[in-house]
Records
---
Amino acid sequence: MDLEKLNSIVYRIFFFGSFLLLAIAVLEFVLNRFGYTVLQAIGGYTAGRLLQLAALLLTFVLALLVRQVREELKKAKIH
């Protein structure tokens, strides 16, 4: 497996993982308004903490994508 395919897999995992965390955070926030929780079994993470983790994953995705764009621009200048 080459590096480009591995990067693509990592992008997709982080991207979909961050949106999954976002969906769970929104669900937790709404359920907390009615006095319920879904995150107690996970270790007591709050909705805000899940949003932070989602933002962290998206930051990594953006950094990797900017790196990929930079590499493509370098290739275009050489040829």
Note: The CA atoms of residues 70 and 79 lie 15 Å apart.
---
Amino acid sequence: MCPKERHIPAHARSTTIALTGEDKLAIQLIGAARRRRGSNRSTMNDVLVDALWELAKKEGVTRDQIASVFPIFSENDQINKNVTEMPKPKSKA
């Protein structure tokens, strides 16, 4: 079985949110319903992102308005040049 194709943009950054048990269950049920319909947007991240964009649309905020707030980066740009990736420790075995 092949792993799922990555569909999160490369410039996306991780974040942490707190969800109650009811929140998680609701998201899981929405994801399950999406999978039954054959949607490839059924992960917790997909459900939350889609819900946020839908809420923004209802509030009258467009993607272009949101995009105008952020600087434009190409995929070759390093977002934070002061951050160095630490090498993985070598195993002692």
Note: The helical segments are 21-36, 44-58, 63-67.
---
Amino acid sequence: MGCWNKTCGLSNLAIHDGEPVLVFTLVRNNSISDFCYSTALYSPVLLPFYSEYNDYGAGENSSGVGLPLILEGLRENLVELEQGENEYHDIPVKRDDFDEEKYWEAIHEGRLRVNSHRGERDVQFVMFHKRFVDHILENYTIKKFVKTGPDYKDYKYIDYKFADVLGDLPSAIDELIENRDDKFGYLFNPLERLSRSKIENNLAAEYLRFSDTYRYSNLININEVVRDLIEANDRDMLTHVLTDYLTGMFIDGFMMSTRKVWIPGCHEGSQSSEDTAYRTLINAMTAVLDEDKARYNYDYDDDQIEADV
């Protein structure tokens, strides 16, 4: 198989050679009990790393704080495999020499697995167009109901974007560091303890306190990473890690809102890159959304209801 265009798991657009991407590692769910969430088929490691598509199904020139943590998590949980009958495809997978190159190769050959309390689980990855992600992070606006006073009527709606989440991160980190001696919360789950703190209306804290949900892969224990960085007094690295982790959480929320699912990019081998079908899809979605919005506005327009009566 020659070179081909990878598929963006978020936009379904083709990813071309040299395109900057975010890479999310995925762990296959062996037991599918429901289809309620974006994590129904695969549990993502929400800490991504950054790469460039190499035109052959993998990445190159990779970077990011997530990469060494992901490789370490894979080594610790790796299902080691011996060389198989086919020396070209049944490659050995061992802890001793497991690195980024082996990451791409083992996934490509379908030989990367990890141990878990639910048995061995296959590991895959998905690439997202960085340009596409950057646009979402810059432009996606969320409406939120927040409390503004002691009375139950003291609420209002606010609009926020990812920049507002990151704007609240320094004070959330302050809270984590200042309460490092709270041994019950600190030793076991420093991020979850944000829900028991006095910090209010902090967007970063609200995202991070849900970091330990069963829906996400624990290949990287983000609470252990945070705890170790607090102990090392490494605020800069802690900021980098939580910034990238919040990126993953924010994107997961966007996927929930757009009914998308964490899965590897398909259409391996396809060199297609025509745009007519995509533009037709975009126009069709816009037309249906506009029709639905007009119908909603009509149904909930009190003046129109009275006129119809």
Note: The chain has two domains: 6-135, 141-257.
---
Amino acid sequence: MADRLVVFEKQNVYRIGWYLQEEQDMGATLGEEDKREFSKDEWDYKLAIETIEALPDVEKDKDGYFWESRKEAQEVLKQIKTAIKSYQSGVKMPDWAKKALAAGWKPPKGWKP
């Protein structure tokens, strides 16, 4: 199994970060660094940050982005995974789809951008 994005609880709020399979521990939390330049290998981190920043009213502290409920964080994680899947397929997700996902739209099964 590879490293993957997961929702986890820290300091009574929910965050999204990487679970590192080899270390069996958490890695970077989304938004914990204010990076603006990314290497080619960090495209998934950049895409995750862009997805979050397109959402309204996302809160952030020194430890990164956070949500008050697990459900909210899970919804954002779904949107991030959809964006990553779209990117991997080589098809850029249209702006209307990004906005719809941010508003809670759930793509129908088999939907492709």
Note: The first helix runs from residue 43 to 53.
